[in-house]
Amino acid sequence: MPKADSPVDAAQDAPDAPETTDAARRRRRAQFLRELAEARALRDRVQPRRAKAARLRHAMRMRTFRW
């Protein structure tokens, strides 16, 4: 039995449903961002060379970005 806040239940909610509140949307977004960060951390542990290259590319982008 899936949890109440699983992505399957979130996908079943219609975006224009009246019961969809801003708080529920923020809760689903926070859950998604947590899972995304967890997946990235796992990928970084499994592929350290690729993770290092990605960090270096990101640092170069940030150095060349103008505010």
Main traits of this protein?
single chain; mainly alpha
What does this structure look like?
With 67 residues, this protein is an all-alpha fold. Helix content is 72%, strand content 0%. It has 3 helices and no strands. The protein has helices at 7-12, 22-46, 48-64. Helix 2 packs across helix 3 (48-64). It is flat.
Number of helices: 3
Give the biggest sheet: none
User: What class do helices, strands and sheet pairing give?
Assistant: mainly alpha
Shape: flat
Number of strands: 0
Which segments are poorly predicted (pLDDT under 50) over 5 or more consecutive residues? none
Mean pLDDT comes to 80
In short:
The chain has 67 residues and is mostly helical. It has helices spanning 7-12, 22-46, 48-64.
Task: Please render the helix and strand layout as text.
Layout: H1 7-12, H2 22-46, H3 48-64
